[in-house]
Amino acid sequence: MTDLSQIVKAYDVRGVVPAQWDEPLAELFGAAFVEVTAADAIVIGHDMRPSSPGLAGAFARGAAARGADVTQIGLCSTDELYFASGSLGLPGAMFTASHNPAQYNGIKMCRAGAAPVGQDTGLADIRARVERWSDEGAPEPVTEPGTLTRRDVLGDYAAHLRGLVDLSGIRPLKVVVDAGNGMGGHTVPTVFAGLPLELDAMYFELDGSFPNHEANPLDPKNIVDLQARVRETGADLGLAFDGDADRCFVVDENGDPVSPSAITALVAARELAKHPGGTVIHNLITSWSVPEVVRENGGEPVRTRVGHSFIKEEMATTGAIFGGEHSAHYYFRDFWNADTGMLAAMHVLAALGGQQGPLSQLVAQYDRYAASGEINSTVDDQTGRLAAIKSAYQGRDGVTLDELDGLTVTADNWWFNVRASNTEPLLRLNVEARDTATADRIRDEALALIRA
Question: What global pTM score does this model have?
Fold first, then answer.
């Protein structure tokens, strides 16, 4: 049997196909998902990877065998699946490995209304059932199996987004979009259709082998083509989507990357204009500028751990209007608290098109500090290294420590966070300071401790 500990992650399933998992295993996951969610109906979508239709179909068969009626929406982005879950009121499963290389695939699962399924909210129970059935055999099908129905929700998804951000009155903009051969090539043309946008489409052909570059815009090498095209064509901005198009990265008119923290602050200001006094969630790696902008616009910032399930849980608890992460995940109350890069991109387009200045000038007010970006270090003993860093800073004058997520060390003019990877022998370092020299000094100091 496949070792499920290798593929069941914090809030999804992800592994190499077929070495780590295959269609018979996906069928068991479908049956287990129905049992754990107690669902009599579910919705399923998939991305463009060659293995996705087969895995999604197997999951659907497993779900139907347990009595659930299955709505299959076919090719979609992850946030389109969340839209379907929210608008139809059904638990959902999205077959994608997001930004991972071509040989991977996975499942992102949610309860009705796009509520997250993580280790503590059902995923551990799903895994336990799959492990038991793998050893003992799957349960007998129910007397009345569920039905399989196909439905196209792309148009409804686009209409919902366009009802949340009005782009009809903006000045004309030239936009380069790099879909990375992922699902942005499927959703962008419909969402942007008829808007005052001149669309320069890069790598819109759906191809799960990713022939041009990996669909992971967080890695700088994967946005080089986009940056060059923006500069060559004199575009107003560039957008890059990851493989399942739930994240969106932005470059300005000079081809320079715009920090996801700056995008979080920009969108937060716009959402607070609609919902005065609202709460905005930000993870502990986003810039100091985010809570500053939230307070300046009359909102209440709430700091939380990194990760999809933590952000969604905090949004539900606080009734937050918006949440943002350093990784370019953006969550909206008006989108069932789910993350959608497309809606964040539309906010950027609306903000840029609603005034005459360039994007670099617009975002400068939200990008206030020097940051290192995330730096990964391979270590033999994650716990030991974290303890050594804590010991080095504990008791130092003017410095505070907290362990909300990893270790965060904060002073008057700088902070850094070190977190252990859940899946690799890595420590992840993020540093921010009020000036570049200080950021570089603290980065080097922290790395010396991490890599000692």
Answer: 0.95
Bridge-based pairing of strands 248-251 and 257-258 is antiparallel
Catalytically annotated residues:
98
Radius of gyration of the chain (CA): 22
pLDDT in tens, 320-366: 999 999 999 999 999 999 999 999 999 999 999 999 999 999 999 99
Cα–Cα distances (Å) from 31 to 25, 66, 146, in that order, read 10, 6, 11
